[in-house]
Structures are given as C-alpha cells and as structure tokens.
Design brief:
It comes from Marinomonas pollencensis. The chain has twelve helices and 13 strands. By secondary structure, it is an alpha/beta fold.
Length: 286
C-alpha cells in the first residue's frame, strides 16, 4: 500500500512539474543575453517587456509596440516593468541595485555568472533556461549547434594568434576582458610590456593602454569596443582611422585592427545568439 502511495505521489509531483513548465510566463528581461537565448529556444512569445533604449540591432524584433519599453540596460523603468504584469523578471549585474524593488513586482532571477570557466558556466545557464521552460531538448540541440559553428570559426582563425582588446571611452583606451575571445575562440592575450600598471578606482581595477603600449605588445590583432558609441554618445566616438595611423607610425603596420559591434559586446553577450555573433566577429579579423 505504501509503495502505491509513493508511486502515486511521485506521479503527482511529476505531473505538477510538467504543468508548471508548460505554463507560459510573462517575462521582463533586462538582460539581452537571456533575451536572445529565449528567442533561440522559441520562447519569445513569453516575453512582454524589454529595455528598448539600448536594444542591440540583432534583437530589433523586440522594438515594436507588442513589448513594453522598460528603459535601458542601466537606467531601468521600474514603473513600466510593473505595468507589464510580469510573472518573472530577468536581471544581470547592471540592474543588481534594483533587485529588491523589482521583487515587489514579480520573482527576480539574476542571470549573471562567473566568467572564469566561461564555457562551463554558459552551458549551465542555457541548460537551466531549457529546464526552467520545459525545452531541454531544444537547449541541448542549440548548444551542440553552437559548438559546431564555433569550431568552424576557430579553424578559420588558426593556431597561435595573439590579441589585445581595448575598451574605448571618451578618448581613453583600457584593456578589456571578454572571455569569448580567449576562452571560446582560443586566442592568446598578448603580454603587457614593462611599465604598464593596473590602477584602482574604488572597487574597480583597470589597465590604461596607449598606442605605443599596444605596438610593444605585438598582437596579431587589436580588437576595439567603443563604449562611447554603445552608450549613445557618438560625439565621443573613437577616431579609428587616426588610431590605425598612429599604430603604423609607431611600427605596428602589421597589426590588424577590428572594430567590434559596441552594443553586441558592451551591452549584450552571454546568450546563444550573441556568443555566436561575437565569435563570428572575432574570426572576421582573419
């Protein structure tokens, strides 16, 4: 009798879990990477609101009246988020300070993860979303397809390539850290020359670079992410032609310079589509 009760209870729990997974959510996604993963897994119909003001071009399908505008990736519109009547709110580090206030509207899921073991943590994130929404098979298929496409791009790049990646902000170049370049695509960071120091400002650490520093590092490619453009300050954008000319003057004529899509890299990332698009841009330099 007890065995029958246990079996019946287990079946009831399983049926309940399946029903919950099948129940459509009303999602506000402040995180663009999660948004593109939801899209790739066929879950866009469950999205009701996105921050349209910094929406990357590759997610333009969400820039319609069908979706409530909840501000931008940094300055969010909490009132608008509430008006969308969500059942789930997805955030990342940029919105962390608003988490408690957002919890008053609906359950909040912080989708940030550690970049130190990027592939492992990214895979776990996609698998989690797949399980959460009852599309585990789609998630696994999407991951397999992504790995296949990444391998093709890595073959195009070839072995033993060294890179420098800089973040530009209003005339200043700072060494950037984007795991897709090193951990996903397998390029090697060029070594910092003697005398270049990492500085601290509050809790932030950053390493300023000059064109001379970059030439001394002898990379095969210099990747540039223009933060000024990403945050809609085109008047502060980097003069890329002038930077290229300066590198040539300093002896860096063989350094390839690749201007990466600023919204894709600075505003988005960590999604099934964005990781592939980033990898594709990395490979396009070769």
């Amino acid at each position: 009798m007890k065995v029958k009760s246990i079996v019946a209870s287990s079946a009831l729990i399983l049926a309940s879990q399946i029903a919950m997974a099948a129940q459509p959510e009303r999602i506000v996604s402040f995180d663009y990477g999660s948004l593109d993963t939801l899209t790739e897994l066929g879950l866009s119909s469950q999205v009701v609101a996105v921050p349209k003001q910094t929406l990357p071009d590759y997610l333009a399908e969400y820039n319609t009246d069908k979706y409530t505008d909840v501000g931008n990736a940094k300055n969010i519109d909490i009132k608008a988020a509430g008006s969308a009547n969500p059942t789930l709110i997805m955030i990342s580090g940029r919105q962390k300070s608003h988490e408690e206030e957002l919890k008053k509207i609906a359950p909040v899921e912080n989708v940030s993860f550690d970049n130190k073991d990027y592939w492992k943590n990214f895979t776990a994130q996609v698998e989690h979303i797949g399980q959460q929404f009852g599309v585990e098979d789609k998630a696994q298929a999407a991951l397999t397809n992504l790995h296949t496409n990444i391998d093709k791009l890595k073959a195009k790049v070839g072995p033993d390539k060294h890179f420098v990646l800089v973040l530009h902000n209003n005339g200043h170049l700072i060494m950037g850290n984007y795991p897709v370049v090193e951990q996903v695509m397998g390029l090697t960071p060029a070594k910092l020359p003697a005398g270049v120091e990492t500085k601290k400002r509050g809790n932030r650490s950053f390493t300023p670079l000059t064109p001379a520093n970059i030439v001394a590092m002898k990379p095969d490619v210099l990747y540039v992410v223009d933060r000024s453009v990403a945050i809609n300050k085109p008047e502060e954008a980097l003069d890329l032609a002038a930077l290229k000319q300066k590198l040539v003057e300093l002896g860096g004529k063989d350094i390839k310079v690749s201007n990466l899509n600023p919204a894709l890299w600075y505003i988005s990332g960590n999604g099934l589509e964005s990781v592939y698009l980033q990898a594709k841009e990395v490979a396009s330099a070769f």
